[in-house]
Amino acid sequence: MKAEIISVGTELLLGEVVNTNASDIAKALKEIGISVYNIDTVGDNPKRLYEDIEKAYDRSDIIITTGGLGPTKDDLTKDIVADFLKVDMVLDENEVEKLKNYFKNRKDELNEGNMTQAYFPKGYEILDNPNGTASGCVINKDNKIIIVMPGPPREMKPMLKNYVIPYLSKLSSKYFASKTINVIGIGESKMEEMIMELIKHQTNPTIAPYFKDKSLTLRVMASDDDKKTAENMLLPTIEKIKSILNDNIYAYGDDLAIEDVVCKYLMDNNLTVSTVESCTGGMLSSRIINISGISKCFKSGYVTYSNESKIQLGVSEDTLQKYGAVSEQTAIEMATACAKKSGSDIAISTTGVAGPDGGSEEKPVGLVYIGLYINGQTYCKKLNIVGNRQRIRRIATSNALDFVRRTLKMPIYEIN
């Protein structure tokens, strides 16, 4: 089956709202083996929306729209769908009652604009919306399916997960099994090059690489009439990928950030950690602190941006004068001083040239040192990162976390 996604809203075209809905829907459809043929964004314009639906109806089996279900006069998605299908709009009394109760509980009145949200194209099935006033609907007509959902992601995403995907899954006789492989420490082109032979000869299962800010992922997917058979089909391909990428893989089973895996290991093994940052300026500690439960392990985070603050922490002034702030020696002393001051088992330091200014021939923009202290032992990693200031800081942070993973020889984390 082929699907098309139409996002409705002038605010999307103006760039005032980022369209995350299309991405979320496309990912969810991929999981159940439905190919997305086209993704479109259209403003609150009846003529253009009608034309988009008309084209999508000719090309695809499923049309999914988001947006245009509000109480204002420019919210016309359901009306345009009804117009295109040549069916009447029908008042749903159950939806009227839900709206009445909704506004009664808020000590407000149900107005005429909100009443329009209780009308649906004839032949509809309701998609409940416990997070807002605009229920969605499904119209299955002439072997074509049109699914209409609200625009706000906090309303759309639960509806997609709880109603739309289960509904569409029943239409396929195939079972789709998939597993995500999380990769770090190599670039996207290098990863693709390493597994290119597998990608070239893929049939079932398939391998799809995805490149993200924090790490890389590979999605391995197999399909079969039998659930267990589909799941077992994944295993040989995953083993082949593991033999190629080796310790660049840090997790299986879900889309996990490197901090998820590192922090879980620290918590499971009762290891305390602290950070001292220069070029990353708190980004490292922020990503660690973002993990729930990490308070049992995370002790302190220092940002020592100036040489004076590094000296106050415990870095030798002689080291700074002889080797400079951006050096292996300074990175190690930062980590050691951090561990002593915080009393942590592990301390991580970052120091580098984030740019765009401040680089030199000897120490160019993108040069970063990561220092690591683990129970009396010190380690250092040198990086040369290409990109703008934010990318350099972000990549340095991910590599710092990965350096901890590799040094502690953490096993690959797996979600079954």
From TrEMBL:
NCBIfam families in the record: cinA_nterm (TIGR00200), molyb_syn (TIGR00177), PncC_domain (TIGR00199), PRK00549.1 (NF001813)
Stated name of the protein: Putative competence-damage inducible protein
Positions of the MoaB/Mog domain: 4-170
Gene name of the encoded protein: cinA
A Pfam family: MoCF_biosynth
Family stated for the protein in its record: Belongs to the CinA family.
Organism phylogeny: Bacteria, Bacillati, Bacillota, Clostridia, Peptostreptococcales
Domain of life assignment: Bacteria
UniProt xrefs under SMART domains: MoCF_biosynth
Organism whose genome encodes this protein: Peptoanaerobacter stomatis
